[in-house]
Each structure stands twice: as structure tokens, then as C-alpha cells.
Design a protein that fits this description.
The chain is of the alpha/beta class. The chain has three domains: about 5-110 and about 295-305, ATPase, nucleotide binding domain (Nucleotidyltransferase, domain 5, 2-Layer Sandwich); about 125-290, Exopolyphosphatase. Domain 2 (Nucleotidyltransferase, domain 5, 2-Layer Sandwich); about 310-450, Orthogonal Bundle (Hypothetical protein af1432), CATH 1.10.3210. Helices cover about 45% and strands about 15% of the residues. It is elongated and about 90 Å long.
Length: about 500
């Protein structure tokens, strides 16, 4: 059991960036420190959906402070994720390339459903054990997550593009409140959320829970006004709406429990909350202690305690859904892993985790390399890449899924289509191992690898040589032909491949 070490979670939300640090004692996480900064990055997207220079700088400044606090943490002790704003931002790579360096740890942009899963996980683990059917609602700055689950298991997860910042900018842009603006905001939110009615109908859940900032902000105001703590009711929302309309504008708001950083986005948050209450027939919502960052901690605890990698289940689920030949996929994975590990034995400068990480992802790509075959036989690699780039796979970040899609796209055909990304030596070597494995397994049986070795042969490690034992090409003439063709394909790249022993 993992015990006595630190873990940390970083949540780059659309409104706030949060850092949770704690100690693990006998498998239980105990908070030691919590930092939160209102960055409001979600308000920094321009009309072209690019983060403005000011929004990027504000994010970098916050992450620099978080990074200083995380100095000395191991890579396996920290998980950092970004949500809707960076899902939308066209220039997110520009922001992330510097953000990763400043924080000192990689930041994963996660899908909406993965965010929903993590939110439910964080909420459920901080509630008493039980089998009640739960509806969990998280209204963020630019997205809202709705999750149905029972006990610790999420069952239905969805993310909708509606949130406190987005709706405040759209319907309360002049910082004024009126019954008409709230009516328009609620109608618009209901239109976005309307498809949730059937899946999240009141007969599907026993108790509604609210998580994160908007729920906390509304709850704080209601408690300060004398409403019961820990619960938001329809009556409380009606009272709050009347108070906001009476104030007329943000500058005139004088309400107990209302933080200054929430005034500018309270209109959007309240309108979205009221739309959800009305649409799903909610009369009372319980305030949940857990949230996204606690879900991240749960994942970290699961990894350290050896309870399994959720991504393995996601790969198996995708393979089953698209009727992949799993026996062949695993065969290709074993061969690709064997070849890649031969190359990796010569690599230097990587930490202890890096080789295992690269091997895992290569193996997953091998298992899914034929995922598009039921759409088209000739172009199945292209369809497979599209599926992976657009699939919601629990446990995976968007960048991880894109990496798998590149490997699947490049496992056959010309390499020119991946010219832009072959500058990454890790990806290039993963792709080389995968393509060779697909060739060697072309007969859909275990290949004869006796005496076969793959190694780098120049001082820069770019040139690669595949050596075959004497007589191998005569025994496997079709494989030998395919390897000769593969060698020619790699001569046009920065990673020339020579195949020795083919006669």
C-alpha cells in the first residue's frame, strides 16, 4: 500500500487555477495545502478562440507560483489537467509549451467526459459509502458536467458548453441585471442542456449533488442570508435572483458571502443553475466537498496502490466496441514492444518512468491499429486515426489520444503524411517499431524473431539497422520483400533504416 509520500493535483479551470497538496497515510489522502487563484482564463478567448497574450501571461504567472511550491516532487506524484478553455483554444499548444516548462510537469488537456469522470470520482470518494443513485452537477466557467452514478461508479457522463463565464459575457456583458436578461440566459442554457432531460430524468437518481465554484459561490451567499448550510433549494435560487435584479448591476451588489471575484460571473452561474433545476425537476441540491482535483488524487492513489490503469480498460473497451481482432492486436503489440525495447536499451538521459510510459502507449497503439478496419479495408488506418482523435476514452488526455491516432495513422502507407511530427525521436522510434511489427506479423501468426536485432548504428542515434540471421529471408520471402520496401520508405526521413541479412 502506498503510504507516507506526497501527492499533488493541479486543475487549470476556466475561472480558477487550483493546487491541492497532501500526504498519503496508509492509503488515505490528507490535505496539507490548498492554493487557488482566480485567473479567469475563460474570459481570455478572443473571437477567433485564441487565448489573448494577457490571458496566457496570467496563466503562466500563476503556474510559476504553483511550480515553485511543487519543486522537489517526482513526476509520478503530480497530475495536472486543463479543461474547457484549453479544449477550445486554437493556440493552446503555444500556451502549453511554456506552461509545462514553468510548472515543471506536463499538463494534460482532458475531454469533457474525462473531466466528468474525474469530478464524479472526487465527489463520490468524499461522500459516505452507500448505493444511492447520484446526480452530480459541476458548473464551471465555460462548461457544465452532469454525471449519473451509483456508489463509486459513474454510469452516464456528459459535458455541455455552458458555464458561468461564457453566459455572463454573453447575457450580462454590461454588468447589469434584469429579469429579461436572466430569462434569455435561462432559455439559452436550457436549449443547450435540453438533450440531458431523458438521460438525467428525476427517476434516474435519488440525490443531486453540486460541485466546484459556482455551487460554492451560490451556497455561500444563501448561507450568509440565513438559508440552511450545505443545501441549495429552488426557493433559495428564486430569492437570489430577486436580489440580483434589485441590485441592477455588479457594482451595486452588496451581499453577505459574495466574494469580489465572483460578482462579475454570478449572473451567468445563477442562470445556468436555474436552468438545470427547472429542466431536471430539482428541488434541492446538496453541496459536495469533492471535485475534479480530488478525482485526480484518486487516480494517483490508484496508480500507486496497484489497482490498475483505467486506460487499459478503455483500450479493451474500444477494441470490443469496434470488433478489433484482439489476438492479432496483442501479437503486434508484443513484437513492437520487443523491437522498441531493443532500441531503448541504447537510449540515454531518460528517467525511470519514461521507457515504461513509451512502451505502454506503443502497445495500446498496436492493439488498436486495426480499429478502422470495419469502415474501410484500404484506408482503415485513416479511419482508425479519426476514431481515436475523436473518441472519449476514460483515463486518457486529448494529447495521449492524439499520440495514439498518429501511430495508428502512420503504421502503414507513406511516411510523408507524418513528416511534421517525425522530428520527435520518441514518436519516430515508436512508429518504426510498430511498422516493423505489422510487417513481421502480416501472416497473422507469431513471427520468427530468432537472431533478429534492431539497433541504432551512428553516433547521433538516427540511423537504425535491423539484422536478420542467415537463411531468414529464404524461409520468409514475403516478409523479406516487405522489409526491403520499408527500408526504402525510411531512407527519405531523418531516420534511415538499413536491413541486413536479406541476401
Amino acid at each position: 500500500m502506498y503510504t507516507g509520500n506526497r501527492l499533488a493535483a493541479v486543475d487549470l479551470g476556466s475561472n480558477s487555477f487550483r493546487l491541492e497538496i497532501g500526504q498519503v497515510d496508509h492509503g488515505e489522502f490528507r490535505r496539507a495545502e490548498y492554493l487557488k487563484e482566480t485567473v479567469r482564463q475563460g474570459a481570455g478567448l478572443d473571437e477567433d478562440r485564441n487565448l489573448t497574450p494577457q490571458a496566457m501571461q496570467a496563466g503562466w504567472d500563476c503556474l510559476a507560483r504553483f511550480g515553485e511550491r511543487l519543486a522537489g516532487f517526482k513526476a509520478s506524484e503530480v497530475r495536472a489537467v486543463a479543461t474547457q478553455t484549453l479544449r477550445e483554444a486554437r493556440n493552446r499548444d503555444e500556451f502549453l509549451s511554456r506552461a509545462n516548462q514553468i510548472l515543471g510537469f506536463p499538463i494534460d488537456v482532458i475531454s469533457g467526459r474525462e473531466e466528468a469522470r474525474l469530478i464524479y470520482q472526487g465527489v463520490a470518494h468524499m461522500l459516505p459509502a452507500g448505493n444511492e443513485r447520484r446526480l452530480v452537477i459541476d458548473i464551471g466557467g465555460r462548461s457544465t458536467e452532469l454525471i449519473l452514478g451509483q456508489g463509486l461508479q459513474p454510469k452516464v457522463m456528459e459535458s455541455f458548453r455552458v458555464g458561468s463565464i461564457a453566459w455572463s459575457r454573453r447575457y450580462f456583458a454590461d454588468n447589469t441585471f434584469s429579469k429579461k436578461s436572466f430569462e434569455m440566459a435561462e432559455i439559452a442554457a436550457t436549449a443547450v442542456l435540453d438533450e440531458a432531460f431523458d438521460a438525467y430524468h428525476p427517476n434516474q437518481w435519488d440525490t443531486a449533488y453540486g460541485s466546484a465554484g459556482t455551487v460554492g459561490a451560490i451556497g455561500d451567499v444563501l448561507v450568509a442570508a440565513g438559508w440552511p448550510e450545505g443545501t441549495i433549494t429552488q426557493e433559495g435560487l428564486d430569492w437570489l435572483l430577486d436580489r440580483l435584479v434589485a441590485a441592477r448591476n455588479v457594482d451595486s451588489l452588496r451581499m453577505g458571502g459574495m466574494r469580489e471575484d465572483r460578482k462579475a460571473i454570478i449572473g451567468g452561474g445563477v442562470s445556468v443553475m436555474r436552468a438545470i433545476f427547472k429542466l431536471l425537476g430539482i428541488q434541492s441540491m446538496e453541496k459536495a466537498a469533492g471535485g475534479l482535483r480530488h478525482g485526480l488524487i484518486c487516480d494517483l492513489l490508484g496508480d500507486h496502490n496497484g489497482t490498475g490503469d483505467l486506460r487499459i480498460k478503455s483500450v479493451d473497451r474500444l477494441a470490443a466496441k469496434f470488433n478489433v481482432d484482439t489476438v492479432h492486436g496483442k501479437r503486434v503489440g508484443r513484437v513492437a514492444t520487443h523491437l522498441f525495447q531493443q532500441l531503448n536499451q541504447q537510449a540515454s538521459g531518460t528517467d525511470d518512468i519514461e521507457p515504461d510510459r513509451l512502451v505502454r502507449k506503443l502497445n495500446w497503439a498496436a492493439q488498436l491499429h486495426e480499429i478502422g478496419s470495419h469502415i474501410s479495408h484500404s484506408d482503415y488506418h485513416k479511419h482508425g486515426a479519426y476514431i481515436l482523435d475523436n473518441a472519449d476514452a476514460m483515463g486518457f488526455s486529448l494529447s495521449e489520444m492524439h499520440r495514439l491516432s498518429l501511430l495508428v495513422l502512420g503504421h502503414r502507407g507513406k511516411l510523408r503524411k507524418l513528416e511534421a511530427v517525425l522530428t520527435d525521436p520518441e514518436l519516430a522510434m515508436q512508429l518504426l517499431a510498430l511498422r516493423l511489427a505489422v510487417i513481421l506479423c502480416h501472416a497473422r501468426r507469431d513471427p520468427d524473431l530468432d537472431g533478429m536485432a534492431l539497433q541504432r548504428v551512428d553516433s547521433n542515434g538516427n540511423a537504425v539497422q535491423l539484422r536478420c540471421r542467415k537463411g531468414w529471408s529464404a524461409a520468409f520471402p514475403q516478409s523479406a520483400h516487405l522489409l526491403r520496401e520499408e527500408s526504402l520508405a525510411w531512407q527519405k526521413t531523418a531516420w534511415p533504416l538499413a536491413v541486413e541479412g536479406l541476401g
